[in-house]
Every structure is written in structure tokens, then in C-alpha cells.
Amino acid sequence: MWLMNYITKNSLTSPNAVKGNVNKNDRDGTAVVSSGEHKRLKSCFPYGIVSVPPTGERAVVLPLDDGEVGLGVIANSTELEEGELMLYSKGGASIVLKNDGRVLVNGKELAV
Known about the structure:
This protein is mostly beta strands. 7% of the residues lie in helices and 43% in strands. The protein has one helix at residues 2-9; strands spanning 18-26, 29-33, 37-43, 58-64, 67-73, 85-88, 94-97, 103-105, 108-109.
């Protein structure tokens, strides 16, 4: 979300980002259906993080000069506090970094 806000505030022209549903994923990239179909999308992630969005998730697509890029999926609300971080998978695995220094793996505190 911060990336979308930054791009919008710092662009001379409106980026005209769209949201839609992930239709499929393959070697050529992700396809998202909104008012039209956006095919062969490359994804935009922070360095060192890679993910393949599950079919049916709501995603954001941003047009660029040389094509389009998938900015990611729209997060569901969670019970995180401001400043906390969660990594999770479609299968239910999760890692939560808590503000107090605790690390939760699948809901259980990791002993350090």
C-alpha cells in the first residue's frame, strides 16, 4: 500500500492502477482480470521476497511505460498491531514478528 501511495503522490500523471482477481499463474507471469485481462504480469516485491499470488485473490496492477506490473494482493485485515509483520502462506503457515521481540511460528512462540 505504501508503494501505491508513493507512486501516486510522486507521479506527474495518474498511474491508473486497477484492481482485479488473480486468474492464473504460470511461467510467463500472473494474469489478473479486472475490467479487462492483464496477462504476463511480472510482480513487484521488496528485495529478497518472492511470492506467487493464489488464484482468486484481489490484486493491484500498475501500467508502466514498458508494460504492466503486479504490485501484489490486497491484504485481509489481521490482528497485527502497528509495526508488526506477518508472513503467511495459502496453506496456513505463518511467522509473526511482534513489537515486543517475540516471534510466533504458526501461532506458537519460538523459544530463543
